[in-house]
């Protein structure tokens, strides 16, 4: 799940340590392979590949796996799959818009798995264009708060000239939002200032949100987790907003 909510950050933290680590690794490796195939195998000249590698390293993907993915993607070694990007749109219960990015070598399988994940959990597939307007393509950089240079004002000072438009408080992290074309400049400004970051990528951010109660939040999460369980699904974006008090209830019920 990616999106404009504190729950996205909570989910991101859990993803690195939960039982699906192998599945997460596979998706990160796939990203690296596609980036190397699209823009070449040199991270210095391919910012998309650089950021895909950094994200994989942050999630503890072994260096050997990363190197092999770069080689497969760039054609230096054989074995790279012919990945195809497909987007699906749908709804979770309560009218929550869901935007699903797939990276697959089997279009029919991906479509079937997305449809099944939605319908079995009270959601439904929608026609192309039905929910896309709810999301804007934005550059998103996530910065952890547990470091010396962590204040909102200080961060703004560092990234404003690089094209950052806003800094949002996501609990344990700051979310820096920019135009997608400025994400590399924002990330570079942070690096030059000695500020660590968790991820830097173009993302789909909702421009309209649906506030959820506890029941609605659980239903949305169930749909997202079912979608993410598919090997073909690479990213899931939803416009459900989980207020702090509902998020606290969710977390306490999981303990």
Please explain how this structure is put together.
This protein folds into three domains: 6-74, Orthogonal Bundle (Arc Repressor Mutant, subunit A), CATH 1.10.10; 84-132 and 209-254, YebC, transcriptional regulation domain (Alpha-Beta Plaits); 134-206, Alpha-Beta Plaits, CATH 3.30.70. 43% of the residues lie in helices and 24% in strands. It has nine helices and ten strands. It has helices at 6-15, 21-39, 47-58, 63-74, 107-119, 152-159, 183-192, 214-228, 244-254, and strands spanning 84-92, 96-104, 124-126, 135-144, 164-169, 173-178, 199-206, 210-211, 233-238, 240-241. The strands form three sheets. It has a four-stranded antiparallel beta sheet with strand order 3-1-2-9. Helix 2 (21-39) packs antiparallel against helix 3, helix 2 packs parallel to helix 4 (63-74) and helix 5 (107-119) packs antiparallel against helix 8. It is globular and about 45 Å long. The two termini are 21 Å apart.
Can you list the strand order of the major beta sheet? Answer: 3-1-2-9
Spans where pLDDT lies below 50 across 5 or more residues: none
The CATH superfamily of the largest domain is identified as: YebC, transcriptional regulation domain
Would you identify the CATH architecture of the largest domain? 2-Layer Sandwich
The CATH class of the largest domain is identified as Alpha Beta
Spatial separation of the terminal alpha carbons: 21 Å
| Biggest sheet architecture | 4 strands, antiparallel
Strand content: 15-25%
Q: How large is the radius of gyration?
A: 18 Å
- Percentage of residues assigned to helices: 40-55%
Strand elements, count: 10
The overall pLDDT, averaged over residues, is 88
**Order of helix and strand elements from N to C terminus:** HHHHEEHEEHEEHEEHEEH
Q: What's the number of structural domains?
A: 3
Alpha-beta content class: alpha+beta
* Outline: globular
CATH names the topology of the largest domain as Alpha-Beta Plaits
